[in-house]
Design a protein that fits this description.
By secondary structure, the chain is mainly β. The protein has no helices and 15 strands. Strands 4, 6, 9, 10, 12, 13 and 15 form a seven-stranded mixed beta sheet that branches. It has a six-stranded mixed beta sheet with strand order 8-7-11-5-3-14, with no helix packed on it.
């Protein structure tokens, strides 16, 4: 689709961003999403469920997040997660966001929707940052409930002067049983 620039009613110096999506003629393969912008940074996120079959105790890995810097440098300021499954916030004593070396980047109290505020998480164009969301299951958790977390919308990740496109990859189920 083409739109004449004059119809956009932009002020001189305005930031422009567009999401481009393409796929093969048979809608089967060769698809791509890309953000185009005149000045804003862009990044992509792949989130993949990493939950074990049964959750118990501490440091249960629930979700892997991989951010890729596409254009311009940015900083990941915050990540908001939404709980999935039948588990209640009281079934979890703490959620943590760890980096690929296992260091704790941020903590969040259990809630249906929780925000991790990050510090100094710079994403350089052409680089990647990987994180894992972990949960400690409360000893009083109700057995048999299911638990998972996800980034529900691209605007649940705040980038400094940047935009995000998000993809989800699920292995088996997005949430598993608490034991």
């Amino acid at each position: 689709t083409q739109i004449p620039w004059s119809l956009l009613l932009l002020n001189p110096g305005s930031d422009i961003a567009a999401m481009v999506h393409s796929e093969s003629y048979d809608h089967w393969q060769d698809y791509s999403d890309w953000i185009l912008s005149n000045r804003l940074a862009s990044a992509s996120l792949i989130q993949q469920a990493s939950v074990p079959e049964i959750l118990a105790g501490s440091s249960n890995e629930l979700l892997d997040l991989t951010f890729s810097g596409r254009t311009n440098d940015t900083t990941i300021e915050s990540i908001t997660l939404t709980m999935e499954g039948t588990a209640q916030p009281g079934d979890v004593s703490e959620f943590r966001l760890t980096d690929n070396s296992g260091g704790v980047i941020a903590r969040a109290s259990p809630a249906e929707t929780m925000t991790f505020t990050l510090a100094d998480q710079h994403l350089v164009e052409g680089s990647e940052r990987a994180y894992t969301v972990q949960a400690d299951i409360d000893p009083a958790a109700v057995e048999g409930r299911t638990l998972g977390v996800r980034i529900a919308q691209p605007d649940n990740v705040i980038l400094t002067g940047g935009l995000l496109d998000r993809k989800s990859t699920r292995l088996n189920s997005s949430h598993t049983d608490i034991s």
